[in-house]
Amino acid sequence: MLAMAACTSRYQNHGYMPPPEDLQNIVVGVDTRATVDDTIGPPTTSGVLPDGNYYYVRSRVRHFGAFRPEVVDRTVLAISFDQNDTVRNIETFGLDDGRPVRLTRRVTDNSVEGNGFLRQVFGNIGRLNPGEFF
Predict the structure, then answer these.
(1) Which residue, 27, 53, 58, 115, could crosslink 80 as a Cys pair with Cβ 3.0–4.6 Å?
(2) pLDDT by residue for the chain (134 residues), tens digit each?
(3) What phi, psi does 36 have (nearest 5°)?
(4) Is residue 20 classed as helix, strand or coil in its secondary structure?
(5) Which structural domain, as residue segments, surrounds residue 39?
């Protein structure tokens, strides 16, 4: 029974997607950035420019046993604004619309890894410069 329980799928939901009823209240060409914030709330992600577009992202990930987690659903809502902060366009994208983006993970080398406490303390003895004390 324990082996069967380990093979059941678990799902995790991430992100926020405004409900369709709230999106219908946003009028393209009329509403501004401030009214979008009041109607559906500010997004967790926005464009890289100071006055960038708004992106709302929701993902559903399936975990199955010892296998790698799999994204089974992802929806991106993009609200773009013009130079006057008026809503220019509202678009929704799914997994079928996008291309996979490979993320790289770069980690800074930790020079203290593998060194014990005493090695770190005594390793600094030869590096002391008496001229720096004054």
Answers:
(1) 53
(2) 666 656 788 899 988 899 999 999 999 999 999 999 999 988 876 666 666 889 898 889 998 887 888 888 888 888 999 989 899 999 988 888 766 655 555 555 566 566 777 777 777 676 667 777 66
(3) -65, -40
(4) helix
(5) 8-98
